[in-house]
Automatic annotation (TrEMBL):
Cellular component terms per the entry's GO annotation: mitochondrion
Main location: mitochondrion
Protein name (record): COX assembly mitochondrial protein
Statement: the UniProt record of this protein carries the keyword Disulfide bond: yes
């Protein structure tokens, strides 16, 4: 077997029959589950999730929940300054970056965002419905 192929034994309902060996490219933990989207109870993180998706979630939550006043101040300054935003809004930009950096390196906040991400991923793997679709459906109800 090559190193890139994953082997999985498929259990037969009849114990007298031999087990079928299924070969595939992806590990069973990425293709298991009710919809073939991965094991909903798997809490391990891939490199992409650790380095891209969770930091993206941290930035988004920081912008919308933690540093709202700093974002608003920088936005207003940018509207007033126009093309000279890089020159006129240095103070507001510095305050915004300081606030974002504070939350980005806060271990409790990072753990909270990671747990939220894992819960969203588990729900997606369990139902097959993504978070964006669920939010859109929920907002249409009201």
């Amino acid at each position: 077997m090559s190193e890139t192929m994953a082997e999985t034994e498929v259990k037969s309902e009849n114990t007298e029959q031999p087990r079928e060996l299924v070969r595939g490219v992806l590990s069973p933990k990425f293709t298991a589950g009710p919809h073939g989207l991965g094991d909903p109870d798997d809490k391990s993180l891939r490199k992409l999730e650790k380095q891209v998706l969770i930091p993206q979630k941290i930035r988004q939550k920081t912008r919308t929940e933690k540093c709202v006043d700093e974002v608003r101040a920088f936005t207003e300054c940018g509207k007033e300054a126009g093309l000279l935003v890089w020159l006129d809004c240095r103070d507001a930009n510095k305050k915004l970056w300081d606030c974002a950096e504070k939350w980005f390196y806060d271990k409790d906040f990072v753990a909270q965002c990671t747990e939220e991400y894992l819960n969203e991923r588990s729900e997606y793997r369990r139902t097959g419905v993504g978070v964006k679709y669920m939010k859109r459906k929920h907002s249409a109800m009201f």
